[in-house]
């Protein structure tokens, strides 16, 4: 209605000079006119200029008198021609009419108020009521009257806002609804030629993607793979969760009584419970180094049992793969290698906020002649700083297969403390020499869990939200597609 009125009027007329008048002449609601003008202005169908006017509107009291008459007139009319006692009069009218009416009527010299209240004039006119109605209708009244009503708090100022309206650059006598889609029907009917299409809003946010979320561990693994590849490492084949105790422990010079080999710490397989094949001559050399040493070592001095080495298990670390790879390397003329792996390992552990029985290990190793502990420290700085962890500390540690061994700590800016992030060392001669690697070949290696840096970098505090049967799908949907910034 309002929109048609405005556009139709402008078709024949230059301008709507005052939206307020326009509305009242047509009996339209001015608020509605204002809304329509704003919308038409937004689409540039019209140009609109603000108009502001200070005007007087009636207060509640003013409205009351405009409707029922002023108190002074009401009071006057309540006085009979012969007069009335004050008390009688007070009973006859409203308390506010009595109070204000007495004051105003005696000021106007309409009445005399003593014990007896009597009229001093025969007839009065309710000019107050009349003027208030005129103000209510937006008519002009004398400044004197305005001042007096202001004093009596019958009127108050109000800023009135409206518009003057002219045709805009996109003016049309009727607004065309902009089409959002080109449909089959448009093409069939041929009316696409006359359509106005809604412009693209390139600032609108897109629909959130509902599917295809990458798990944080996958994103972290990808990032680590890229780091290793950029550093010139090759990925080791880790596609065997089942391993023999031999490659998981014995080849790594881990004695058979070692507590890690207990079923409390390791998942052993019931079927098939043992491995069928091991390289026999190498097994002999491993047995010998455990029992009585060699290569400058005294060994452990115990009775090494083949049965124990044959037991199948779920690999407890990816270092089992490293031992296979180093053995394979030793079977060929020596060439230096840089290997890495990122894959699943299993430990028979109690599950809590930071531990799972299944998790992932990241492992890196470099095999070359004459490597030193300095090389290990250097490569660790290189590797971890690519992950955004450039403050490192090392603590001497023990692993059966490395000497020296170091735990790796990184300073966490958010937690404001040093956190343990990994383990490292130089593989022992008792491990490397029975494999057949040349004597001057050294292997530096490190390992860490994939979950730990993922939790730190993605701000996840319960490992069970990240991995396992209780994984929080919402968390996986919510976490960013890629992380910008490292800490
Ligand atoms: N295998 C070790 C672990 O399970 C990690 C490690 C790898 C340590 C290589 C030293 C060298 O924690």
Short description:
By secondary structure, this protein is of the alpha+beta class. The protein is built from 20 helices and 15 strands.
Could you walk me through the main structural features you see in this protein, from its secondary elements to its overall organization?
Its EC number is 6.1.1.20. Pfam families: PheRS_DBD1 (PF18552), PheRS_DBD3 (PF18553), tRNA-synt_2d (PF01409). One of its GO terms (molecular function) is tRNA binding. The chain is an alpha+beta fold and 487 residues long. The protein has a domain at 216-478: 2-Layer Sandwich (BirA Bifunctional Protein, domain 2), CATH 3.30.930.10. It is built from 20 helices and 15 strands. The chain has a seven-stranded mixed β-sheet with strand order 7-10-11-15-14-13-12, with helices on both faces. α13 (280-292) runs antiparallel to α17. Bound molecules: phenylalanine (PHE). Phenylalanine binds at residues 317, 319, 363, 399, 402, 423-425, 445-447.
Task: Outline the fold blueprint.
Layout: H1 2-12, E1 15-16, H2 19-26, H3 30-42, E2 46-58, H4 60-68, H5 71-78, E3 84-85, H6 86-92, H7 95-107, E4 111-113, E5 116-119, H8 127-136, H9 143-151, E6 155-167, H10 184-189, H11 216-230, E7 234-235, E8 242-244, H12 245-248, H13 280-292, H14 306-310, E9 312-314, H15 319-330, E10 337-346, E11 358-369, H16 373-386, E12 392-399, E13 402-412, E14 417-427, H17 429-435, E15 441-449, H18 451-458, H19 463-466, H20 473-478
Parallel strand pairs: 7-10
Antiparallel strand pairs: 1-6, 2-6, 3-5, 4-5, 8-9, 10-11, 11-15, 12-13, 13-14, 14-15
This protein binds phenylalanine (PHE).
